[in-house]
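Title: Prediction job returns without error message
Component: structure pipeline
Severity: low
Priority: P3
Assignee: unassigned

Description:
Job completed but the reporter wants confirmation the result is attached to the right record. Sequence as submitted:
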Amino acid sequence: MLNKDQFADNHFIRTIIEEDLESGRYSAIQTRFPPEPNGYLHIGHAKSICLNFGLAYVYDGKCNLRFDDTNPEKENQEYVDSIKEDVKWLGFEWSGEPRYASDYFDQLFDYAVDLIKAGKAYVDDLTPEEMREYRGTLTEPGKNSPYRERSIEENLDLFYKMRDGEFPDGSKTLRLKIDMASGNINLRDPVIYRIRRAHHHNTGDKWCIYPMYDYTHAISDAIENITHSLCTLEFEAHRPLYDWVVENVAAPSKPHQYEFSRLELLYSITSKRKLNQLVSDGHVSGWDDPRMPTISGMRRRGYTPEGLRLFAKRVGISKSENIVDMSVLEGAVREDLETAAPRLMAVLNPLKVTLTNFDEARTESRFAPYHPNREDFGGRDVRIGQTVYIEQDDFAEIPPKGFKRLTLGGEVRLRHGYVIRCDEAVKNSDGQVVELKCSIDYDTLGKNPEGRKVKGVIHWVAAEHAAPITVRLYDRLFTEPRPDAVRGEDGEYLPFTDFLNPESVKEIRAYAEDVVNTLPAESRWQFERTGYFVTDRKDHAEGKPVFNRTVSLKDTWQAKA
């Protein structure tokens, strides 16, 4: 359930909104989340979703979901569907039906015609190369196109012919007539329409000209009566163009753009182009690979909506650089799962233990809750057998100082079970321990042994009551904190794929309590003493459990550092 305390507070955008509401500038706020459907959403989008939908929720306003779909060659319905699913999974509902910038293509065209009639737009024949030459540089002004002074009548005629498909792709553009000497290059007669024959996921083949993002975005906000148009800081230099557009068309409102810093998550990348490269080059299994920083990938990894919303609150909203270590994200997810995930026992690296004095008539099961603080989770009877499995690391023939687990001649308590003593270690021909022979102290179920202390408690599973499981141990996808910002000796950026972590996934066979055979997909659990795991969305099936490691119980990367 959402509540108003779940969202970042005391940031500058909330201050602006509160002042606008108090002054009566607006009676209610209207935000929007405007993704381009050219890929799956990632962790940076999750921050933006929590901001835009969260502000609408906190201030009892509305938030639109609008697809800025002006680039048909890179957009498709798969991305549209995934975005809708991600927003809902994060816990949000958009106002009304989803909107599309393409829904406004007729209005956008009419506004362009009005701009031509007002002498504020013209059809240009410069090639992209010539346009770059004419644009100038950051230190030198641009120069006017030789086609800038076409008459209004000629511009109208050419623009209608562009729409009607009478010119080849790329041969003409429609540009705003602003200022080629502006210190802001975005105002040097920007292109607002180009000819591109491409099938559009929403409008089909109706159009062979498509509006550019800056023009479309500003007008879409104005049509939808957006009160606070929120975007990341790289669009700050585009704001004068945004303002010029909304001031020079007869749209129903005059929204204002506010910028905040984008999220940079270390040991990850948040470029759709580079994420797409990972998918298309086969470095990952798809957009929802659990190693990907996409929302669908994090969901499949076992991250929770609550954990991602907590992360978004903790990173906050500001204009300062927002560089966040992966441990902050993992910590937020871990904190949510601590309360939300039931517990069970699973052995990932099994060592066989034979209980030499096992007597079925004497052994008892013990009821164990699935969570120590959640009675509503219920519990189960933990049963023992003659053969049990423990973790290889829970036995040491030559124990290090402070070792509190099982050793030759030593005792340990089996979690929710008896104290056992190790009497013999059986080795193979290579000298590796392959089996332990141990004995049960039958007088220790639910109570301490007489006359001695047993400090160690380890998890285990009984062979005859265990289920074999497939476990995918996921780690960070990259070995470098900023994989796309590493320069070689020549000063050039190295390919970010050079820093893929070869140990980012390892699949093993393990054993767990047999309740796992009945679990549905996306069932999150804590494997005691090991970490948090989730049954895979795609590959898990009842009777054939597949678990993904979500996050370890502790931050092991900080220990490595």
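Comment from assignee: result matches the submitted record. The longest helix spans residues 43-58.
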